[in-house]
Amino acid sequence: MLRRAEECERGWFGPGQPETVARLRADRDNLRAALDFSLSTPGEELAALRLAGALWFYWHACGASREGLYWLDRALAAAPEPTRERARGLWVAGLLAAATRDFPRGRRHATEALTLARALGDAAEGAHAEYVIGVIRLFGGDLPGALRHFETTVGRGPVPGQHLSLVGLDQVELACALGFLGEAERAVEVCEQALRLCERHGEQWVRSYVLRILALAHTVRGDWPRAERHAREALRLKLAVHDVIGIALTLDLLASVAAARDAHRHAALLLGGADRVWADIDTGRWGASVLTSVRRDSEERAVRALGREAFERAHRRGAALGLAELAGHALQEPGRPHPTEPAAPPHDDTAVRLTRRETEVARLVAEGLANQQIADRLVIARRTAEGHVERILGKLGFSNRSQIAAWMTAQR
Fold first, then answer.
1. 244-260 vs 264-279: helix axis angle to the nearest 10?
2. How many beta carbons lie within 10 A of that of residue 2, not counting itself?
3. Model confidence pLDDT, tens digit, residues 98-127
């Protein structure tokens, strides 16, 4: 499993990203078994840390931040020696902690990773840690500091061994800081540079973030048609790998564009959907003023145009949509199928009654946790957790855990 994960990481910045995601999702139980074995077998702890770190792109890009952080926390505690694997594990844990709004913890991990990487003479892991530090500055509200940080890293250029995804993301965050500070022309220039890098490699995930920042830059210019076109294309690419954070950010931007173009009912629906997706990440949008102000402005415009009652109706409708339907509305393609969202068999939701404990277990299944992780989280025996999962499957008439996850998302 370690060889497979490292092979996927090496090929991640390329044309096969949706296939890589599908392969890793199919292997989730095997990956969890490998991690659990390594963490419970003396002498195998470093292998667990190496495996959890190699999967950074999967944890971060494919909506599995909390699970990744769970494994990294355990692996870092089990392997405290000052190794390259620890430097990698620390910045990955920092990135995932920041994605779940724990900025102090994220900054602490990333700073420790940078110190260790420098002590080891590992320029690549140091550059990766610097990226995390810069992201935390950006979304922590220090826009001038983030701008200086990414101007330095982008100006320096790639260092030997640095993953090209993180080279591209350095450029994305520089353009993002410029866009938030109103420097649209410079943001577009940086985005064009990043697009060329992605196009040379046939890459899609970083490209989706570049397109989102291009959309942001065009909102600063007031070029709403171009902003909407870029944001929709970004959303299509993010859906292909199930990038939950990217989907939430892009829905917010599309709602803002819709409000600016006086499509207020559409904006309210998109805000409802965005709020639901954010609920699985952080309802406060990491407390980032640049994100919360965009959302607030969109709502205020829509409420002024529609009235509070009509706004709330459209917002509730958006919040009730499944991801496939929501994407269809955002892309102006109602009914568009979503290949990564598992279909659940039809049944009468009102007839299903889970106990409080079963609801807790179903929620953890939806987060991607394995039975042992659920048992650890709820302080129960693994066999008890397995029994809860079996009863949930029986009550809902489902055959696999993915259907539970889809059903829980629909309930939220």
1. 160
2. 16
3. 988 889 999 999 999 999 999 999 999 999
